[in-house]
Amino acid sequence: ARICHSTTVAGVANTWGYGAMTNSYNDIHKSRAILLIGSNPAEAHPVSLQHILKAKEENNAPVIVIDPRFTRTAAHANHFLRIRPGTDVPIIWGMMYHIFKNGWEDKEYIRQRVYGMEEVMAEVAKWTPDEVERVTGVPENQVYAAAKAMADNRPGTFIWCMGGTQHTIGNNNTRAYCAFQLALGNIGVSGGGANIFRGHDNVQGATDLGVLADTLPGYYGLAPGSWGHWARVWDLDPAWLKGRFDDVAYDKDGKEYIGEHGEKDKAEHVMNTKGIPVSRWIDGVLENKDAIAQRDNVRAMFMWGHAPNSQTRGPEMKKAMEKLDLLVVVDPYPTVSAVMHDRTDGVYLLPACTQFETYGSVTASNRSLQWRDKVIEPLFESLPDHTIMYKLAKKLGFADEFTKHIAVTNDEPL
User: Fold this and answer.
1) Could you tell me if 79 and 64 are in contact, meaning their C-beta atoms sit under 8 angstroms apart?
2) Taking phi first (over 0 means left), then psi (-120 to 50 degrees means alpha), and beta for anything else, what does residue 86 get?
C-alpha cells in the first residue's frame, strides 16, 4: 500500500477521485484494444494474461506493449514500443499528439465528463514526433501506429504495474495514463478503464483499508466528517478518537498554531493533517524537530512486512534506524533491519505467521475478495498478524476499542 502503487493511488485519485482499478479482469474480455506499459503479466500476473489473450483471440484486439525490455508479454504484442527508461509521459504525450492532430479524441465524452483537457492538449502539442523520438527513442511510425490502434478499436483498456509507478515521477506517469484514457472516452465503460495490476498479494486490500499517512479506510480524506463517519462505523466516541492524537494544530506553513482549533482557515488539528509518508520517515528522525510539524522527532518505528532496504537513501536510512529509540520488525524472517550490525539494543523481532498459517480475506487488484483458509497451525513462536496487533493493543490499553463487536478467543480476534 505504501510502496507498491502509492504513486497510482495519488495520481489516479487526483484525476477522477479514487485511486484504484476501475474495471475487472473478466471485463478485459470485452476490450477491443489493450495497452500495457510497465507491466509484464506473462511473468508477474500470469492468470491475468489469460484474460488478455482471450480478448486478443476472440475480439481481434490489438495488444500494445510499451517497455524498455522485450518481455514475454511483448512476445504476444501486435505493437511493441521500446522506450528509454523513465520516458513514460513523453511516449503517452506522443501518442496523444496523433490522437488530437487527427481528431480521434471522443469530443462529446470530453465535453460532458472531462474538465481541463484543454490544458492537456496544450502540453501535448509541445511533444512533436521529432521531440518524442529524441526523448523516447521510438520512431514516429511506431507511435502513430499504436495511437491509431487504440483510437480505431474502442473500448480499449490501459494496464500498468510497477514499471510505471516506481519512479520519482510516478504520479506524473499515472496521471498521464489516465488522461490518455479520458481523451479516448475509455473510462466508465465496459471493456475500457484503467486496469491497475497490483504488485503483491493483497496490496489492494491494504490500500482499501487506509494504512496510509493521508487517508482513512475506503479512501476517505482526513477531515472531521470522515472521522465522524468512521467513529459511527466503529461505534467509538469521536472524542476518544481525537484524544489518541496530540492536542495541537498547525498552520499552512507547518508551524504550531496557538489559538482556537476550530478556526479552520488558520489551522488544522493534527488528526486532520497528513502524516509523514514512508519515503520521508527518515526526515522525521533526522531533521531538527523545529522543521517538522509535530512536537518531537520520530523516536519509534514499526516495520510490518516491509524491508526498507528496497527504498532509496540507504545511508540516511541506516543512520535513522540507528538513531531510533525503538525499532520493531514484524516479519516471518529476520530482515536486514532486524540484524543491523551497528545496533545492539532496542530492536525487537516479532515472528509473524506466513499466509499458510492463518486465515482471512485477500483483495485482488480489481477489489474482488477471496477467502484464504489456514493450512497448518503457526510454527514455533510465530503468531498471526491480527493476534500480534491485539496483544499490542492490550499492552497499550485500547484492546476493548480495537476489537469492539469482534469476538476474541485466546488473544486471536475472530
Assistant:
1) yes
2) left
How many whole angstroms separate alpha carbon 28 and alpha carbon 56?
10
Query: Phi and psi dihedrals of 309, rounded to 5?
Result: -70, -5
Q: Are residues 144 and 44 in the same domain?
A: yes
CA R_g for the chain: 24
Are the C-beta atoms of residues 73 and 51 closer than 8 Å to each other?
A: no
End-of-domain residue from the set 273, 308, 339? 273
The three cell numbers of residue 371 are 477467502
The answer to whether residues 240 and 180 belong to one domain is: no
3-class SS of residue 268: strand
Q: Which amino acid is at 227?
A: W
- Residue 11 is classified by DSSP as H
Is there a single domain that holds both residue 43 and residue 79? yes
| Contact between 393 and 402 (Cβ < 8 Å) | yes
Helical packing angle, 6-16 and 170-183, nearest 10°: 40
- CB-count burial class (<10 Å; 0-12, 13-18, 19+) for 198: buried
Which residues are CB-contacts of 144 (< 8 A; sequence separation ≥ 6)?
98, 129
What is the rounded distance in angstroms from the CA atom of residue 339 to the CA atom of residue 21? 37
Set of cell numbers at residue 365: 487488484
Residue 175 in 3-state DSSP? helix
Number of domains present in the structure of the chain: 2
Mean residue pLDDT across the chain: 89
State yes or no: cis peptide before 155, omega within 30 of 0.
yes
Query: pLDDT digits over 322-377, tens only?
Result: 999 999 999 999 888 888 878 888 999 999 999 999 999 988 877 788 899 999 99
pLDDT tens, residue by residue, 261-303: 555 545 577 888 888 888 889 999 999 988 888 889 999 999 9
Calpha distance 357→389 (Å, rounded):
16
Q: Which residues of 389-403 are buried (b: 16+ CB within 10 A; e: fewer)?
A: bbebbeeeeebeebb
